[in-house]
Amino acid sequence: RSPSYQRSSSRLPRSSRMGLKVVLACSLIASTTAFLATPAAPAALRGKQAISQRLTPSLGLRSPLLPAKLSASRSTATGALGLSAKVKAEYVWIGGRGGGGDDYRSKTRILDKMPKTVDELPLWNYDGSSTGQAPGEDSEVYLKPAFMCPDPMRSGDSILVLCEMLNPDMTPIPTNTRTAAAKIFEGHEAEEPWFGIEQEYTLFQDGVPLGWPKSTARPFGETSPLYQFGYPGPQGPYYCAVGYDVSFGRNIMEEHLDVCLAAGLEIGGTNGEVMPGQWEYQVGPCVGIDAGDQLHMSRYLLHRVCEDNGIVCSFDPKPIPGNWNGAGCHTNFSTKKMREDGGLAAITAACDAYGVNHEKHIKLYGAGNERRLTGDCETNSIDSFKYGVADRGASIRIPRFTDADGKGYLEDRRPASNMDPYVVTALIFDTGVLKGDTKAFDNIPSL
């Protein structure tokens, strides 16, 4: 880069950065092997709404991973006055643009006591005419709590509550894909569908990714727009890189990792990606609908962290055109049968089913995915389907050790970074394990 290039002003002061706790070890360097571990008491196996068991035993919801200033409980003044403690519940839902990650809404409700399970949380509502989800003359949309976890962004007794959006007759509104996905998983708990999702994202400031020039002026004597002061060199030096001139936005990644772990989310790892300003984290292994819940909550927290740092997070599948890797959401999948001896046969059978249903899946794997799945930059063409062992240019990759062991999991490399995790995980399960005939997502808007 040119010496005249100035690094983003969003970098944390040295004193603040020194205060962050180091939570990554070498074992957390990004690898899909992180998804081989058994899920920590996966939700589908613990019973309905048992996600609440992730809360601390005292239900104070404060994690030891949080800095002391975030771990403060209710004020001493409250206790001295003999006032009852209140609970801050942040109700989170998906807005009118759908589940692609760029439209989360939330508002706070004060509760008199800490709920033990999500079922104890009250219904609420919001103005759907202001989110593009209801007409003004009938604007109330119900919020039905579906998933809760500690809120690491607040002090005191605080929780995050992910909600389904319902009509007054309690049917799902069009942008609520969770209800349909949950029905697909329901009754098939014995299959133990595990998901590990690799969420890629790009960090922007002032309209450009971190590490890219803000000026469009070309140097004298050059005719190509690629020759700009500060323009990064060809991809290669940036993947999992360390250094001021090759790593951009690490403070965001670290803070996001901290808050996700403090919220009790199943984060498997994180790493810098191929394009400057691009990162990835992994969620899982999670079972069934829990995968979508946790990915959405982790995306919400990423936006909150970026908001506090003056950064914009993008899930666009091809933020920079040309010979740069796009941003995907590779989805690793297995069932109990696939993980047992001889499971490779079930894996290849699922891959064959995915090939037959390729067009159906691609339509629901994220908007703008055709800009990413070109056949270049570690992708297969959007117009064709193939699977292979250790092939990162395939639609479905079978890991080499899965092939060698005769059991394991598969990786669907087609989903874009802005995919709806409820739709994608349910489709993968339905096509690969069930009859593959669901039409639940045929008329979803914004996909």
Shape: globular
Q: Indicate the structural class.
A: alpha+beta
Fraction of residues in H or I helices: 10-25%
Report the uncertain regions.
Answer: 1-32, 41-80
Largest sheet: 9 strands, mixed
Which key terms come to mind for this protein?
single chain; 447 residues; alpha+beta; 9-stranded mixed beta sheet; 5-stranded mixed beta sheet; 12 helices; globular; disordered N terminus
Can you offer a commentary on this structure?
By secondary structure, the chain is an alpha+beta fold. 22% of the residues lie in helices and 19% in strands. It contains twelve helices and 14 strands. The radius of gyration is 22 Å and the shape is globular.
Question: Which helices and strands occur, and which strands form pairs?
Answer:
Elements: H1 14-19, H2 43-46, H3 68-71, H4 76-80, E1 87-94, E2 104-111, E3 124-127, E4 140-150, E5 158-166, H5 178-185, E6 194-205, E7 208-209, H6 250-262, E8 267-272, E9 278-287, H7 289-308, E10 312-314, E11 331-334, H8 336-339, H9 344-356, H10 358-362, E12 387-389, E13 396-398, H11 400-405, E14 410-412, H12 421-432
Parallel strand pairs: 1-5, 12-13
Antiparallel strand pairs: 1-2, 3-4, 4-5, 6-7, 6-9, 6-10, 6-11, 8-9, 11-14, 13-14
Summarize it.
By secondary structure, the chain is an alpha+beta fold. It is 22% helix and 19% strand.
